UniProtKB/TrEMBL annotation:
Pfam families: IQ, Myosin_head, Myosin_N. The keyword RNA-binding does not apply. ATP binds at residues 176-183. Residues 30-80 form the Myosin N-terminal SH3-like domain. Residues 546-568 are annotated as: Actin-binding. Keywords: Actin-binding, ATP-binding, Coiled coil, Motor protein, Myosin, Nucleotide-binding. GO terms for biological process: actin filament organization. This is Myosin motor domain-containing protein. One of its GO terms (cellular component) is myosin complex. GO terms for molecular function: actin filament binding; ATP binding; microfilament motor activity. InterPro entries: IQ_motif_EF-hand-BS, Kinesin_motor_dom_sf, Myosin_head_motor_dom-like, P-loop_NTPase, SH3_Myosin. Belongs to the TRAFAC class myosin-kinesin ATPase superfamily. Myosin family.
Length: 817
């Protein structure tokens, strides 16, 4: 059904043999052609070749309309397919990141946010509602089209049909960084949703698994980021009088969803009480002491303010995480009950479609433990992606009977081993530090990493400082700051806090921490051994979750949806080419393009191939007298596979043949034009002779006609002059009237403007007079009030003096008696 096409060497020899003779023509042909060249703002742009200098090209760029010099290796040739609005990138010839970016940009600007890259769907977040984007009466008809329209429904329908036809479980892997449009609501955790189907293809149950909840967001948010929605809903949904009893007034939608899940009023009260408790913990003043359990003894020590704050934050994160885990389990139970899920031992219950919503690769300004876990997840998914893409591509070649060599690809197994392999993986060494108790520190951890992995191919020790380490991921180098690694990896609470939760008067809270009961006094002797063997760190728990997830994914046939964030400001129609290119690299899209280029990316049906290149066989077979040595069964072989280099060689040969044919056609056309010109001159000479003979006969007629014409001209001139004079007088009258009307209009306008100006002047004068009067009144009133106060003061002093004098007289009179 396919045939790998190898270009006949005679074509290459013929082209190379004529290269010296046609070098000037080739150079002239290249000048004026389009080419992709680097651009500092848009990464790539399409320009026109002005001059070909061998190793360099002078390109005219449309943005600044200036010439720029580029090395040939910096540019990429333009193909006519690059200007087409293709729904599938695989249909593009001469693949490269430049036309890929341009295709995605053009589709995005026309609200075509979905694009296929083979069987991988690229989705670009539009940051707006697109009308009728999901309005399809028959979703199944989309995937039945010969060239399906790129849409997430096509991917979902393809997974469902594959589940029905093959009986093998399917999975849809949705990945992309925060803000790329994976979900409508922002969430900071990964989840794997399994939708179970029965034998008839009907949904019979669902379950959700989550991992790597971003608990650090509970106690602190990054700049320009929000916390979890429930905190804002709690604060805005309660009145001041009802905050103490946690009675909800708002977020009806959340409460309705809880009702659907079968959560009772008491449970809802407990849930919101715990959420409010987490908020209150942020305002808690902690005591700077704690209890350390040793081998057979208990010691009370003083804690620093930082350590006490960490303990308080750890309790808040543990409460929120335990509540989150409980809610997920409760939802899984509710969905199983509502759908009537089959028992686990039923064969039909094992058929499922899994949807993985995972965070994309992250390279931030400051990368910490969370970024290491996220990038570790993406490394595992990239490994699974490589296996799927390469195996699938090579299976196609085997199925189509192509003589192929094994495709090479960038294997990221060494990077995975650096992170997770026992006994010296980064996460393993981090867990070892967790077992050292108070002796552990981030400095010891980074020193251990440098000593162990300094010579590893995927590990780089920074030249300066001793707080960072660098890992070479498949998407690029990431510098991780080791500060805080140990604290973030420690998922356990102090025994005092565990005792606090287990002694709570709320049964719901005690149930959440029932499995975390601290060791009692009778178990102190075994505390050290238990600590060494049973400590569950975040890294260990996450590795186990990832191992279980990958085991499930390896049993499925995956489909990939790569979500891309077009800009950082979340603005509709905003396009940041550099940001998008980095995401395409991180998501493995560019790697997919590279895989396609390393194989046979150009695919033509035999009919298309024959129509385009049939002239080469007639020309070169006649010159070389060559005949086919391989007979192809047309019933089995329907597709021709080629590499880009072969396509360019064939296109060059076609252009050469067409140039030669054009020269021949031009010769025939020039001969035809010369003969046509000769016949035209001959006919003209014959016509001149006839005209000379006719001239003599016409002379007398022309003299008579001239006299008649002169008379008629005089009559028409007199009539025309009379009509002209009449029209002139009328025009003069009209112009005089118009000038009078215009002067009257100008005079009227002048009077009106003068009147308006006078009114404005009088109004302003009146206002100014009032303001002046008011000002004078204020001054006079202030002077009056001041004088009045002074007079009143003088009067009071006089009256006091008189009263005192009278009082003295009366006093002496009274005493004298």
């Amino acid at each position: 059904r396919a045939l790998s096409f190898t270009v006949n060497c005679t074509i290459g020899q013929q082209v190379c043999g004529d290269s010296m003779a046609t070098s000037t023509a080739t150079k002239a042909r290249r000048e004026g052609e389009k080419v992709w060249c680097p651009d500092p703002r848009n990464v790539w742009q399409l320009g026109s070749i002005v001059e070909d200098d061998g190793d360099s090209l002078f390109v005219l760029t449309p943005d600044d309309n200036e010439e720029h010099k580029f090395n040939v290796s910096q540019t990429h040739p333009f193909d006519p397919s690059h200007s087409m609005l293709l729904p599938n990138v695989s249909d593009m010839d001469n693949l490269h990141e430049a036309p890929l970016l341009d295709l995605l940009r053009r589709r995005y600007m026309e609200d075509l946010i979905y694009t296929f890259t083979g069987d991988i769907l690229i989705s670009i977040n539009p940051y707006k509602n697109i009308p009728l984007l999901y309005n399809f009466p028959d979703i199944g008809s989309l995937s039945k089209q010969e060239n399906p329209t790129p849409h997430v429904y096509v991917t979902a329908d393809g997974a469902y049909r594959a589940l029905q036809s093959t009986g093998k479980c399917q999975s849809i892997l949705v990945s992309g960084e925060s803000g790329a449009g994976k979900t409508e609501a922002a969430n900071r955790f990964g989840k794997f949703i399994k939708i179970n189907y029965d034998r008839d293809g009907k949904i019979c149950g669902a379950s959700t698994s989550h991992f790597l909840l971003e608990k650090s967001r509970i106690v602190g948010c990054s700049e320009n980021e929000r916390n979890y929605h429930i905190f804002y809903q709690i604060c805005s949904g309660l009145t001041d009088a009802e905050r103490g009893t946690i009675v909800l007034l708002c977020f009806k939608e959340l409460v309705d969803a809880m009702d659907v899940m079968g959560i009772s009023a008491d449970l809802k009260h407990n849930i919101f009480t715990l959420v409010a408790s987490v908020l209150h913990l942020g305002n808690l003043n902690v005591l700077f002491h704690g209890v350390v359990v040793g081998s057979g003894s208990v010691a009370e020590i003083c804690l620093s303010g930082v350590d006490a704050g960490k303990s308080r934050n750890g309790l808040a994160k543990a409460m929120y995480s335990a509540l989150f885990d409980w809610l997920v389990d409760r939802i899984n139970v509710a969905t199983a009950e509502m759908t009537g899920a089959l028992p686990m031992n039923d064969v039909g219950a094992s058929r499922f479609i899994g949807i993985l919503d995972i965070f994309g690769f992250e390279i931030l300004a400051v990368n910490s433990f969370e970024q290491l876990c996220i990038n570790y997840t993406n490394e595992m998914l990239q490994q699974q992606f490589n296996q799927h893409v390469f195996v699938y591509e090579q299976d196609v070649y085997v199925e189509e009977g192509i003589d192929w060599s094994k495709l090479s690809f960038q294997d990221n197994i060494p990077c995975l081993e650096l992170i997770e392999k026992r006994p010296l993986g980064i996460l393993i060494l981090l867990d070892e530090q967790a077992l050292m108790g108070r002796r552990a520190s981030d400095d010891n951890f980074i020193q251990k990493l440098h000593q162990t992995h300094e010579k590893h191919a995927n590990y780089i020790r920074p030249r300066f400082g001793n707080e960072d380490f660098i890992i070479k991921h498949y998407a690029g180098q990431v510098t991780y700051k080791v500060a805080g690694f140990l604290d973030k990896n420690n998922d356990s609470l102090h025994n005092d806090l565990l005792n606090l939760t287990n002694s709570s008067t709320m049964a719901f809270l005690r149930g959440l921490f029932a499995s975390s009961t601290p060791p009692g006094d009778q178990k102190l002797k075994r505390a050290s051994m238990t600590k060494m063997t049973g400590t569950m760190t975040v890294g260990r728990k996450f590795r186990e979750q990832m191992t279980e997830l990958m085991q499930q994914l390896n049993t499925t046939t995956p489909a990939f949806v790569r979500c891309v964030k077009p800009n950082n400001v979340r603005f509709p129609q905003g396009w940041n080419a550099e940001l998008i290119l980095n995401q395409l690299i991180y998501l493995g899209v560019m790697e997919t393009v590279r895989i396609r280029r390393s194989g046979f990316p150009v695919r033509r049906t035999f009919n298309e191939f024959y129509l385009k290149y049939k002239l080469l066989y007639n020309v070169y077979a006649a010159k070389t007298k060559a005949h086919p040595t391989t007979v192809v069964d047309k019933d089995k072989c329907e597709v021709v596979f080629m590499r880009d280099s072969q396509l360019r060689l064939l296109d060059a040969a076609v252009r050469k043949v067409r140039v030669e044919a054009a020269i021949t056609v031009q010769a025939y056309v020039r001969r035809f034009l010369q003969r046509k010109q000769y016949l035209r001159v001959r006919a003209a000479i014959i016509q001149v002779q006839a005209n000379v003979r006719m001239f003599v006969a016409r002379t007398k007629f022309l003299r008579l006609r001239h006299r008649i014409t002169s008379f008629n001209a005089c009559v028409r001139r007199w009539l025309a002059r009379r009509r002209y004079l009449r029209m002139k007088r009328a025009a003069i009258c009209i112009q005089a009237g118009e000038r009078g009307r215009r002067q009257a209009t100008i005079a009227s306008q002048a009077m009106i403007r003068r009147s308006l100006a006078r009114r404005k002047f009088l109004r302003e004068k009146k206002m100014a007079t009032r303001l002046c009067a008011f000002g004078r009144m204020i001054i006079a009133r202030r002077a009056y009030l001041k004088t009045k106060r002074q007079i009143v003061l003088v009067q009071s002093l006089v009256r006091r003096y008189l009263q005192r004098k009278q009082y003295v007289l009366l006093y002496y009179a009274f005493n004298s008696k």
